Amino acid sequence: MTEILWHGRGGQGAFTAAKLLGTAYILQDQSRSALAFPSFGPERRGAPIRAFTKLDSKPIGNRSEIERADYTIFLDDTLFSADACSALKPGGKILLNTKHKVDNEHVFTLDGDRLAAEILKRPITNTVMLGAFCALYEELSLDSLEEAVKQMMPEKLWEANIAVVRAAAAMMEGRKNR
């Protein structure tokens, strides 16, 4: 099972990204299973939240929160700390939305805020980081992610979100083999 932990703030779309990822994974192969769920503290815009996505080739029975992730994705760099690597499984990776460089072989960075501003015209980085994740995770295709956007989001959001997914994936593609 591949376990992905999402860190964001209320209103940034971490749970939406977790669901989109699960949908895309299943769309690619109907025999697969996915589970996505949130963990909220105070339910207000800007409050820290976590969301979880579990992906497997067989049915998923474990519905507990993820303790140690294969991938951790930070939509907001203010939630990131040096301790984040301790919550990874061996060989795990962190995808961090930030303008800053992080000198750690497990951390991949992307200025998702800039891409969101340019393409979405809004400060919402969930689909940006999902596109970047698609470049890191070989079990997911951009085509299935595009189809998930079409199935899960209103039609008026399709074009911009598909464009930002593809742009983020292209930016991350050159970094994934380091």
Plain-language structure description:
The chain is α/β, with parallel strands linked by helices and 178 residues long. 35% of the residues lie in helices and 25% in strands. It has five helices and six strands; from the N terminus they run E-H-E-E-E-E-E-H-H-H-H. The chain has a six-stranded mixed β-sheet with strand order 2-3-1-4-5-6, with helices on one face. A hairpin with a 7-residue loop joins strand 2 and strand 3. Helix 1 packs across helix 4 and helix 3 crosses helix 5. The radius of gyration is 15 Å and the shape is globular. The protein starts with a strand and ends in a 5-residue tail after the last helix. The mean pLDDT is 92.
Tell me the number of helical segments per DSSP (H or I, 4 or more residues long).
5
Strand content: 25-35%
- Helix/strand/pairing class, anyone? alpha/beta
Largest sheet data: 6 strands, mixed
- In quaternary terms, these chains amount to single chain
Low-confidence stretches: none
Could you tell me the mean pLDDT? Answer: 92
Ends apart, CA distance between termini: 24 Å
Query: What overall geometry do the principal axes of the alpha carbons give?
Result: globular
Q: Summarize the helix and strand pattern as letters.
A: EHEEEEEHHHH
Rg calculated over all Cα atoms:
15 Å
Number of strands: 6
Strand order of the largest sheet: 2-3-1-4-5-6
Task: Annotate the secondary structure layout.
Elements lengths: L1 E8 L4 H15 L4 E8 L7 E9 L12 E6 L13 E10 L9 E4 L1 H9 L5 H11 L5 H11 L5 H16 L5
Parallel strand pairs: 1-4, 4-5, 5-6
Antiparallel strand pairs: 1-3, 2-3
